[in-house]
Automatic annotation (TrEMBL):
It comes from Spongiibacter thalassae. It is found in: Membrane. The keyword Lyase does not apply. InterPro entries: MAPEG-like_dom_sf, Membr-assoc_MAPEG. Keywords: Membrane, Transmembrane, Transmembrane helix. The keyword Ion transport does not apply. This is MAPEG family protein. The chain crosses the membrane at residues 6-27, 72-98, 118-137.
């Protein structure tokens, strides 16, 4: 089996998710220590978010976002690879989606301008929808 070019955007988004995880930990753990929160503080992420500065919590919120909709992206890309629809416009859409998710993360983790973040999320969601519809049309 030959490698598909669509594997690259998949791995890129996985690596970006891990970058955000490290970013979250390097900001959040010192903040928890500085706030002198014990090991039972914030047993739920939302509770911990209420105990820390919102700028600290944004990284955790974004990491959670990277564990949500991108799972559909991964499944869609893998399905496109399996059915041989992993090039051309579909490949460009996959890269576009990944780029949008990185931009979304950067907005969310730094300034958190909600309308800017939402706009990028909406555009990425449209790209993902087009990918999924194109995949469905290829098999029906």
């Amino acid at each position: 089996m030959s490698n598909s070019a669509m594997i690259a955007p998949i791995f890129t988004l996985v690596i970006w998710s891990l970058v955000v995880l490290v970013w979250m930990a390097t900001v959040r753990l010192p903040a928890i220590k500085k706030a002198r929160l014990g090991p039972t503080a914030g047993e739920r992420t939302s509770e911990l978010g209420n105990l820390l500065d919102k700028r600290i919590q944004w990284k955790a919120d974004n990491y959670n976002h990277l564990m949500e909709q991108p799972t559909i992206f991964y499944a869609t890309c893998l399905a496109l690879i399996v059915i041989g629809q992993d090039s051309g416009l579909n490949l460009y859409l996959a890269w576009f989606y990944v780029g949008c998710r990185v931009v979304h993360s950067l907005i969310h983790c730094t300034s958190n301008i909600v309308m800017a973040r939402f706009s990028v999320f909406l555009i990425s969601s449209i790209a993902l929808t087009v990918l999924a519809v194109r995949g469905l049309l290829a098999v029906v």
